[in-house]
Amino acid sequence: MLGLSLALPVAGAVSIALLRRSPNAREAASLLTAGALFAIVLRIYASVSGGGRPSLALAEPIPGISVTLEAEPLGVLFALVASFLWIVTTMYSIGYMRGNRESNQTRYYLFFAFAIASAMGVAFAGNLFTLFVFYELLSLTTFPLVTHAGTAKARRAGRVYLGILLTTSIAFLLLAIVWTYAVAGTLDFRQGGILAGEVAGAAVPVLLGLYVFGIGKAAVMPLHRWLPAAMVAPTPVSALLHAVAVVKAGVFAVLKVTVYVFGIDFLAEAGASAWLTWVAAATIILGSLVALTKDNLKARLAYSTVSQLSYVVLGAMLASTLGVGGGGAHIVTHAFGKITLFFCAGAIYVAAHKTEVSQMRGLGRTMPVTMAAFLIGALSVVGVPPLAGSVSKWYLLGATLDSGQIALAAVLVVSTLLNVAYLLPIPILAFLSKPEGETAGGGPQGGTVLNEAPAWCLIALSFVALGCIALIFWADRAFQLLQPIAAAAGG
User: Fold this and answer.
1) pLDDT exceeding 70 applies to what percent of the chain?
2) How much is the pLDDT for 235?
3) Residue 393 is inside which H or E element, if any?
């Protein structure tokens, strides 16, 4: 199953290339591959939730350092999110790419499949070397998606995207991995970590900082510019970046390094992560403040993601069972909330050709399904019960209080208020304001005409919006899945 989790998306990419002259068959191949991958990940989940830790050695390019896959709770959680949302994003892409008459659609589906294969490699990495290899592959396979439009603006955005991600990973992450191997003699992920007793003093916070800033996909400020720059890509690519694979791979890697390389006990005793909790807190607040200033809808959502990612980083840096569990749960709940918002942004662009928040006035009358889904996604990201986002935020707030960090708890509360300030005015404008030029009868000609996005887009965005509600019953299970590794690592 582990081998198939990588091989199947690659085989799907080959099928997509072979079926390039038949769009219906090409898209069916993408959907079938996504569905089959999710079924495989469910099989792996069943094994891991039962206490199993299946592994598979693929190669040993360097003596003593192998490319190895291993399934453990945190990786399974990320793989479940990425594989399931690939299905929904493919459905959405069919409506968006056709409705917007995008060029190079085969290339888009092809590299999307390669990106998912890379994400599976990140999720099931059995050691730091494997994680680094697939982390880099994820950057390279998503680059053609970011530059999909082929315009000068898209190429500039692609250079920023790849430049920051490759520079941080080579200058910081690779250095941290080499340093780890030099002091610990291994790169394997182990319960409780591998660095306790091997590194001490000021070296611990420095090494941890190299990992956190070297994992640029976590978008911790000031290494976040690649994420807003990449918003030039089509909306389904934005969904891939923000919810399905890329940024989730970043915060997942931060959590994995925290638990399996440093170990929560070691970090807590050394106090090495304290300074990074404040870096995460600053990113949470600053990202939200910048989001407030953006009139462009995708730019506002991009800076919202910068802020929300550091919720997970903060949970990891608290070095506690509750923090790790809350961070893992937030990966899931934020994925569903943010993909809903991006799907709605894309639907608005396809149907109404509107991109600015100030243009949303009255849009709820012509696009009621889309804007209702946006409201649900926004409320989940804010953390309003009984939507799923409230569960992970509750755990993270509890983690700050349990650690005696009242100031960090205040940061989460203030951030939630800022979430309200930059997200809820959008559906309020859509539903409670009249569009410009509206007559007494409701529309320009006295009547309101529905103008929703293509059916595939509506089905996908409605499905993930319902997921924001349904996940309230599953988010706690995500926390419970992670609790054994966090408890074993940190008590």
Assistant:
1) 95
2) 81
3) helix 389-402
